[in-house]
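Summary for the lay section of the report: proteins are chains of building blocks that fold into shapes. Here we show the chain for ATP synthase subunit a, chloroplastic and then a coded description of the shape we predicted for it.
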Amino acid sequence: MNPLLEIAEVSVGQHYYWELGGYQVHGQVLITSWVVLGIIATLSFLGNRELKSTPDGFQNFTELVTEFIRDLAKTQIGEEDYLKWVPFLGTIFLFIFVSNWSGALLPYRLIEIPNGELAAPTNDINTTVALALITSISYFYAGISKKGLGYFKRYVEPAAFLLPINVLEDFTKPLSLSFRLFGNILADELVVGVLVALVPLVIPIPIMLLGIFTSAIQALVFATLAGAYIGEAVADHH
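The coded shape description reads as follows.
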């Protein structure tokens, strides 16, 4: 069996499988991902359908989010190259943020499906690994598009004997990104689920509020690290 397919089989709990092109995919992840994308698209439409030079109403909110992401990109990537990466970092941040909050706030578990249960898309290791791999491809693309093949000189700097360590570092970046996000979101939902089952409803509320806060922090951490990796790839090392 293909070892990559074995890794893709890593899962927690039961899943609602769909057959697409001869492959099994986690149907509940696609359903909740579409919900997340629908929420983002709706909010974007509401905030930008009637743009004004002096923003008011919901346009204030969307411009606040845009400015926040621009500042994040500028801080992590640098003045010269940050602008072209704002859409990427914004997409990553908003998808993870809305995914995490949808898992914490929407009553997914009240919706019955043939097998498994609905949860935040980031509660599935396949989603977080996909986000981490997209980030890895992005910072390789950023470095190679700016420096050409000279980008790979970084692997033998400051000394050639550091080559294995520098290569290993690039392999561990997507692993740390994916497992950090997956582990935190899964742990939060498991803790809340156990507390709701064991004690009255009022007791888990502080834990749920803490989970909402940490969910936002996880989206910020992922986007910040993605920006930092891209910034490292495009930085000039002298």
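Put simply, here is one thing we learned. Residues 163-198 form the longest helix (36 residues).
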